[in-house]
Amino acid sequence: MQSISDIRRDYTKADLDTDSLTADPMVLFERWLQNAVDAKLDDPTAMTVATVDPTGQPSQRIVLLKDINKGGFVFYTNLGSKKAQDIQSNNKISLHFPWHMLDRQVKVCGVAQQLSVTEVAAYFVSRPKPSQIAAWVSKQSHPIDTKQLLMAKFNEAKQKFLQGEVPLPSFWGGYRVIPHEIEFWQGGEHRIHDRFLYRRDTESQWHYQRLMP
Ligand SMILES: Cc1cc2nc3c(=O)[nH]c(=O)nc-3n(C[C@H](O)[C@H](O)[C@H](O)COP(=O)(O)O)c2cc1C
Q1: Which pLDDT band holds residue 81 (cuts at 50, 70, 90)?
Q2: What would the mean pLDDT of 161-179 be, rounded to a whole number?
Q3: What is the extent of the structural domain holding 106?
Q4: For ligand 1, what atom is nearest to the CA of residue 81?
Q5: Is residue 139 assigned to a domain?
Q6: Is residue 146 included in any domain, yes or no?
Q7: Closest C-alpha residue for ligand 1 atom 6
């Protein structure tokens, strides 16, 4: 196998300069998200969510961005999951969009606000029925002895919800991450990358600075 230290490539796809920036970073974010969709990346909406537990231990996992509204990034999950427990004790959160196939990444720091039941219910009904049923069956992040046990629970729930709509489980929900920092990173030749960090001030105005790579 090739030595790991020899695995590298050059980043030459584009430059990011002040002409391409927007006053509101959410506008630039949506432009970059559209670029990721247009480039037909797998899971262009996938983002890493980092949380911190009460001992100060960070952890991360991928979730899908499902909306951008009311000034924040929306995702859905199980409210008993590890991430939800972390958020309950510390709602400071970081998101990361790994669009490195486009020589890009976006990093977000913000706070997570739990979505209202009305918002969650509106999304839940749009999910495919098997995913709705799976939400009922999985006590996310908790141990289970065997896959067979899980599938038995799933098949049982499938029978139970054969007719009619699947109700929203009370333990299923979502979060809106309200950003106060957003960094746009565009890889550059010779590792001279372009980085712009937007910060929101106390009057909710965004300001940006170029960072060294
Ligand atoms: C591409 C991809 C998309 C995912 N989307 C979600 C999602 O939208 N919501 C979710 O709860 N988990 C999603 N997961 C699973 C999470 O990564 C994670 O395993 C799960 O949420 C439990 O995380 P936790 O134990 O840290 O709370 C996704 C995983 C991958 C690889």
Answers
A1: very high
A2: 96
A3: 9-127+170-211
A4: 27
A5: no
A6: no
A7: 63
* CATH number where 53 lies: 2.30.110.10
- Our answer on whether the CB atom of 151 is closer than 6 Å to any ligand 1 atom is no
- pLDDT at 1 > cutoff 90: no
Percent of the chain scoring above 90 in pLDDT: 98
Name the average pLDDT for the chain: 97
- Average pLDDT on 103-124 reads 98
User: What is the SS3 assignment for the chain?
Assistant: CCCHHHCCCCCCCCCCCHHHCCCCHHHHHHHHHHHHHHCCCCCCCEEEEEEECCCCCEEEEEEECCEEECCEEEEEEECCCHHHHHHHHCCEEEEEECCHHHCEEEEEEEEEEECCHHHHHHHHCCCCHHHHHHHHHCCCCCCCCCHHHHHHHHHHHHHHCCCCCCCCCCCEEEEEEEEEEEEEEECCHHHCCEEEEEEECCCCCEEEEEECC
User: Within a domain: residue 134?
Assistant: no
Pocket test for ligand 1, best of 63, 97, 131, 137 (most atoms within 8 A of CB): 63
Counting the structural domains of the chain, the total is 1
Q: Which atom of ligand 1 is nearest to the CA of 66?
A: 8
- In a domain, residue 41? The reply is yes
Band of residue 211 on the pLDDT scale cut at 50, 70, 90: very high
Confidence band of 139 (pLDDT split at 50, 70, 90): very high
